Amino acid sequence: MKKNTFYLLIGCIALALLAIFWYSVEIENSILIEAAFIVGIVIIYFARLRVTDLIEDERSARITEKAAMRTMQIFWVIFCAFSIGAVIRLLDVPAFPPSFHPFFLPQHNTGFLPIRNIGYIQLGLLCLMIFLYVGFRIYYAKKFGDWETDEE
Amino acid sequence: MKNKIKVFRAMHDMTQEDLAVKIGVTRQTILAIEKGKYVPSLDLAFKIARHFGVNIEEVFTYDETPKTVPDE
Question: Is B38 within 8 Å of chain A by CB?
Answer without folding.
Answer: yes
